[in-house]
């Protein structure tokens, strides 16, 4: 196995020969074999071990085992304890997801602080198969069937072409010691159930199943590359990236054969999964929206807009008397002037004596109304938005400057007739959106 690994390592990852490597070592069979293989190569490396404190004394014994190995072999080691249960509770994650998040965050921290170039993990071919079957059982697209990548940014997995059986044989032939994780024996977890109950049946049906699976995985990845290339070409025609938003032109999208496949390809990375609802959204009325954990998909006229889900609550900000500037959330400047100058969308002139301080800057609310400058009578803001063809995005971004809860200015759009300068005005205040 070593010669096979050495050849794979040098041909697939030649840049590692001169890199500073961090090896993720749990103390289990796979990571101890990876550590032994790397130690036989002429590369600079160190060990990183995570103690997630999820298995009581067992977790501490794993840590002690790796520490002892590093000491005996003069290997530099980094060791970190995590309060995984508390973190999982705080972040509302499963223990497995929480541990993975903590693990990789710490690895990237070590890369930065200790000047390592890459992290090596011991994922192998059987892990690939289990991940494939998990994704298949949950429902996924082509990308979800392509398995674990051999390299993902700074994370490299050099054992992905080696089976668990090969790894165990190598360990026994070389008298390696490792720790057994008792949780691996439990069928409480989906991965273990697949490993213990489903995979043996597949291997019994076809003794060369792992080889066949690896070939299939290679075919799927090649197909995914073709899909990605085609998707990128269409993406440039149909999607605009504007101010942290992705705007999908529905007129262009609906001309595509099987447009749903493109939506799936573009929206899956944002965590959307309610595909029937998403396809219905294409023909829904403007303003309808769907949410994933961190993003929303909004129907806005002839577009679908993907953007980060807002965590802001409706806020209000105050401008006190004699305050001549507001810097957040908008930059407003207030200046006393002797006469009216040129008004535009960003500049208004108001009767200062009609104002009651503090002025309030807030989002619009249902039921808001004002007296649009140049018009007779009052108008509901919702009706004004409709007449002016405000999109739902425009409405969400609208700010109102108010005096005693009366609208002075729909900022950047229209001031209120009640605060205009008249022949009786004594003091003029210029308010400018900078």
Automatic annotation (TrEMBL):
Subcellular location: Cytoplasm
Cleaved signal peptide residues: none
Any Pfam family: TilS_C
Enzyme Commission number(s) from the entry: 6.3.4.19
SUPFAM superfamilies on file: Adenine nucleotide alpha hydrolases-like (SSF52402), PheT/TilS domain (SSF56037)
Keyword Cell membrane appears in the UniProt entry: no
Catalytic reaction list: cytidine(34) in tRNA(Ile2) + L-lysine + ATP = lysidine(34) in tRNA(Ile2) + AMP + diphosphate + H(+)
Binding site for ATP: 26-31
GO molecular function, one term: tRNA(Ile)-lysidine synthase activity
GO cellular component: cytoplasm
Coiled-coil annotated residue ranges, if any: none
Entry keyword set: ATP-binding, Cytoplasm, Ligase, Nucleotide-binding, tRNA processing
UniProt note: domains: The N-terminal region contains the highly conserved SGGXDS motif, predicted to be a P-loop motif involved in ATP binding.
UniProt record similarity statement: Belongs to the tRNA(Ile)-lysidine synthase family.
Cited function: Ligates lysine onto the cytidine present at position 34 of the AUA codon-specific tRNA(Ile) that contains the anticodon CAU, in an ATP-dependent manner. Cytidine is converted to lysidine, thus changing the amino acid specificity of the tRNA from methionine to isoleucine.
Protein name in UniProt: tRNA(Ile)-lysidine synthase
Gene source species: Flavobacterium piscinae
The gene coding this protein: tilS
């Amino acid at each position: 196995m070593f010669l096979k690994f050495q050849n794979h390592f040098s041909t697939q990852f030649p840049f590692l020969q001169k890199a500073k490597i961090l090896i993720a070592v749990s103390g289990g069979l796979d990571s101890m074999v990876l550590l032994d293989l790397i130690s036989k190569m002429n590369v600079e490396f160190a060990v990183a071990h995570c103690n997630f404190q999820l298995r009581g004394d067992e977790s501490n014994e794993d840590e002690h085992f790796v520490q002892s190995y590093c000491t005996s072999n003069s290997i530099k080691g980094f060791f970190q304890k995590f309060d995984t249960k508390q973190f999982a509770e705080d972040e509302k994650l499963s223990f497995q997801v929480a541990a993975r998040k903590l693990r990789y965050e710490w690895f990237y921290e070590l890369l930065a602080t200790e000047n390592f170039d890459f992290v090596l993990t011991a994922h192998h071919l059987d892990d690939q198969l289990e991940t494939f079957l998990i994704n298949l059982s949950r429902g996924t697209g082509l990308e979800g069937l392509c398995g674990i990548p051999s390299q993902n940014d700074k994370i490299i997995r050099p054992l992905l072409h080696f089976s668990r059986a090969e790894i165990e044989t190598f360990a026994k032939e070389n008298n390696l010691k490792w720790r057994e994780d008792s949780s691996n024996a439990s069928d409480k977890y989906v991965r273990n159930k697949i490993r213990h109950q489903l995979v043996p049946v597949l291997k019994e049906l076809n003794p060369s199943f792992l080889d066949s699976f690896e070939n299939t995985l290679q075919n799927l990845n090649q197909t995914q590359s073709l899909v990605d290339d085609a998707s990128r070409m269409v993406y440039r025609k149909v999607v605009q990236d504007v101010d942290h938003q992705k705007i999908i032109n529905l007129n262009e999208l609906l001309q595509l054969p099987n447009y749903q496949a493109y939506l799936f390809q573009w929206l899956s990375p944002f965590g959307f999964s309610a595909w029937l609802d998403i396809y219905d959204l294409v023909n829904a009325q403007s303003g309808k929206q769907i949410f994933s954990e961190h993003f929303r998909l909004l129907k806005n006229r002839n577009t679908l807009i993907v953007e980060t889900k807002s965590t802001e609550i409706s806020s209000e900000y105050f401008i006190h008397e004699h305050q001549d500037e507001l810097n957040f959330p908008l930059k407003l400047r207030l200046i006393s002037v002797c006469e009216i100058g040129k008004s535009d969308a960003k500049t208004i002139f108001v009767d200062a004596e009609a104002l009651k301080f503090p002025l309030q800057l807030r989002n619009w609310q249902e039921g808001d109304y004002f007296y649009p400058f140049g018009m007779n009578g009052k108008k509901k803001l919702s009706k004004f938005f409709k007449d002016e063809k405000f999109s739902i995005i425009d409405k969400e971004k609208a700010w109102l400057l108010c005096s005693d809860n009366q609208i002075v200015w729909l900022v950047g759009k229209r001031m209120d007739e009640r605060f205009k300068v008249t022949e009786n005005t004594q003091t003029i205040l210029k308010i400018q959106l900078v």
